[in-house]
Every structure is written in C-alpha cells, then in structure tokens.
Amino acid sequence: MVYLLQTGLKNFQFMIPVINNKSKIVFNVQDEDVAWAMNAWERYKNPYKNKFLEHIMPFIGMAFVFLLVIISLYYIFKHIGVLSEVANAFRDAATEFAKVQTGTEVIGG
User: Fold this and answer.
1) Could you tell me the pTM of the whole model?
2) Between the CA of residue 95 and those of 61, 81, 89, what are the distances in Å?
3) C-alpha span between 21 and 91 (Å, rounded)
4) Span between the terminal Cα atoms of the chain, in Å
5) Residues 18, 25: contact at Cβ < 8 Å?
C-alpha cells in the first residue's frame, strides 16, 4: 500500500508509515517526485481527455464552412429575381452603349 500526500494541484509526495519505539505510527514524508508518475498515470487513463477540443475542431470548422455555403446559396436563390433584373439591365445598357458608339467620332485637340 502506498500513501501519498498531495502538496499541490498535481504535486504528490510519498508518506512512509514507521512504527517507533513507543508503539506509535509516524509518517515520514519522503522528498520523492511523484508528480511525474501521477501525471503519466492520468494521461494513460484518459489519453483523449485533454485533447478533446483538438479532436473535434476540424469537424466544427467544416460545419461552420458548410453553414456558410448553405446560407450564401439561400440568399443567392432568394434574390435570383433581383439578379435577373440586374442582368437584364446590364444587357440593355450594353445594347444602348453599342448604339451610341456607332456614329461617334473622337475629336482630339
């Protein structure tokens, strides 16, 4: 059996029970570094606990891009009538510019 004394958030020290001459149990605190072993054990138990966000971040990014594309397509198809009116106005303007430029001359000075 191992007794550990927690001295910090992830800092531990060994406590060794010793029976002295007066039949009392005394705990001697060893200055061993147990934090490394405890940290390794926690990482072994839960290898994906601290990296959960790193594992799901690509999926969150893809979902965000997917929603952005869907919303932009929705607005494009919602305003398709306006876009067709703009296209017709551009076509009419181009034909008018073509008619105007046929009989013009540039006078330089």
Assistant:
1) 0.38
2) 46, 21, 10
3) 107
4) 105
5) yes
**3-state SS assignment for residue 15:** strand
Q: pLDDT tens digit string along 62-73?
A: 999 999 999 999
Say which residues have a Cβ less than 8 Å from residue 51's Cβ, sequence separation at least 6.
Answer: none
Q: Would you say 13 and 34 are in contact if contact means Cβ atoms under 8 Å apart? A: yes
Sheet-wide strand order for 3-6: 3-6, 12-19, 25-29
Task: For residues 5 and 14, give the distance between their C-alpha atoms in angstroms, rounded to a whole number.
Answer: 6
Task: Find where tokens 């008619």 sit.
Answer: 99
17, 59, 8, 14: which is closest to 32 by C-alpha? 14
> What is the overall mean pLDDT for the chain?
76
